[in-house]
Amino acid sequence: MTTELALLLALSTLWGASYTFIKIGVETIPPVTLVAARTLVAGLLLLAIIRWRGLKMPRDRQTWVYFLVQACLNSVLPFTLIAWAERTTNAGLAAILNSTTPIFAFLITALITRHEVLTSRKLFGVSAGLIGTALIIGIGALDSIGDALWAQLAIVTATICYAGAAVFGRNFRGLDPMMPAAGSLISGAVILIPVSVIADRPWTLQPSLHSVLALLALSVFSTALAFVIYFRLVQTLGSVGATAQAYLRVPIGVAIGVVFLGETLSSTAGLGLACVMAGVIAMTLPTRARVRQAV
């Protein structure tokens, strides 16, 4: 369990840092092209590592259909929706809305798939994490709810996609975590690159060195490495447990913003962090298995 919590913290750090990388990257690289390059570079890197390890990617059609579905849920749709929405929605509110992934994962699991045991402890964890997230960012960020309604609905839709991806990820049990990570990223790149070519004409762009370095960091650390850890956690912690990083990455992302971007903390950040930690622990502690005897 200690290993899984350490991996959850690592994943939260990698994805928390992605906000800073994206902010620097989009200064001179359009969002769609940034996302297309991000998925392509990360996918190719993982394919190279898989080959270096002497492994082979699955070749059956069904698995690649699953990779394509996972790509749509975990990168293509949410990345694009959030990039569009943040043109008119402030970052604080966007972070609050985007951190509700565990709630939707909990509801999808409870009402539709029912593939995990859902306890009152996990429900407490989901609620405590959401409250803590709002406290860390600051209650004032909620004041603008209702403004730019379509943009906010887009962020919520992206959040539902992330929850669906966590639930759908259980289809890759038995595969080395690098396989679904590489397969979904390459599938996402296949979808996004033609859109980038049509919309942004990337050969005409002149990105700055800072944006290129941010893109590389985003691709290698916050995507390739992060996706491998993510699929490992989906297998070991389950769909709801793996989404706990959505809460944990909020204080990490805020801290990175304070250190590197000169942002300030809300007055309720300390209380919020305590709520987030309580929620993460409640969501990730293993459930006692009930032993059933065959009759």
What does this structure look like?
This protein has 295 residues and is mainly alpha-helical. It is 75% helix and 1% strand. It is built from 11 helices and 1 strand, in the order H-H-H-H-H-H-E-H-H-H-H-H. The longest helix is centred in the C-terminal third of the chain and has 34 residues, at 209-242.
User: In angstroms, what is the radius of gyration?
Assistant: 19 Å
Largest sheet: none
Order of helices and strands: HHHHHHEHHHHH
Helix content: over 70%
**What fraction of the residues are assigned to beta strands by DSSP?**
under 5%
Class computed from helices, strands and strand pairing: mainly alpha
Average pLDDT confidence is 79
Number of helices: 11
pLDDT < 50 stretches: 288-295
